[in-house]
User: What shape does this take?
Amino acid sequence: MTTDATSGTSPTNSSGLVLYDIAFAPPYEENTCAPNPWKARYALNFKGVPYTTQWIQMPDITTVRRSLGLPACRKFADGTDFYTLPALTDSTTGSAIGDSFDIANHLQITFPDAGAGDLFPPQNLGFEFHGTIAIPLSERDDDDLHADYARFNANVDMAFTMHAQLMAHGMRWDPAYEDRIKAEFMRRTGAQSWDDLAIAGEARDKLKVSLRDALRDLAAMFQRDATGPFLLGGRPSYADVIVGGWLRMMSKTLPESEWEEVRTWHAGVFGQLHAALRERFGGLVGLEDFPSFRIVNPASVYLFRVRYMLTVVYECGGGLRKKPSISFQVSLIWFLVSLFWATQ
Ligand SMILES: N[C@@H](CCC(=O)N[C@@H](CS)C(=O)NCC(=O)O)C(=O)O
Assistant: This one.
């Protein structure tokens, strides 16, 4: 579904959609973990529309946004512009959209019935979390399209952002840009070194407990329909995607043992949500995200493919006179099945 392009070029595809996402450590497809770009990626995959990804290094975000004619949608505490991703360009409608929530709205308007259907089905989204953070979230109007979802988005973002220190030090960058990126985070926080941004020991445990408590009411919403894994039971919506973006971030940046803990918090609702989103809308983001490839070790997939090619050569060598061997038929079926999964 997704093809990739390197930073600095202009990829195109049949749908004309290009997602601008933040490049973390290579391979970018596997390590991409920024929550808001993930909301946009999940929404695109939810709609099942083809798009290409443009990987942008963090220090280039401002230039890229400006070149797309997109103003900043956040401000630093001192009032200066904070240029962010995701952005989506749609060459068929000539639009450039620079906020994950607006991207979801755009997709819903442009592809109302595509893929898994309505991103915004009516539901009770009364989760509230209040707090103050160093870099304020984007401001939105109360009369926004799908304002209940927009409010839910703001409250969920606040709950996780207040605990972002648990994740910050686990971010991994492209070595070519790492020093500049770390320097920028230090500038923003006033830290003297990158390691000052880490949180360990008792303070970390306290922050983890605080996050778990902050998520209690949210988890209860996922338990309203016990069939799960989504807020509306078996029916996914953009509200699941909003939470899922943050779960992605945690899955990639928390130490493995902590991520395992998070997955089991509150009767495992977040672990189940993450797994379901990854399976249904995870896209081509590394082999580990392929259900079929998880079941069959990736190396064996390639071995099967090699075996298939060798068998084809062998069979062709013998001409088409005889009936294809069982081995050939099995290899062919396997190849088609793996192709099918690869296009899901
Ligand atoms: N309201 C915006 C917020 C986007 C946002 O905060 N993006 C973060 C990544 S999740 C970013 O681009 N950060 C860049 C940086 O920290 O320099 C949206 O939903 O798209």
In short: Residues 151 and 158 are 11 Å apart (CA to CA). The longest strand covers residues 17-22.
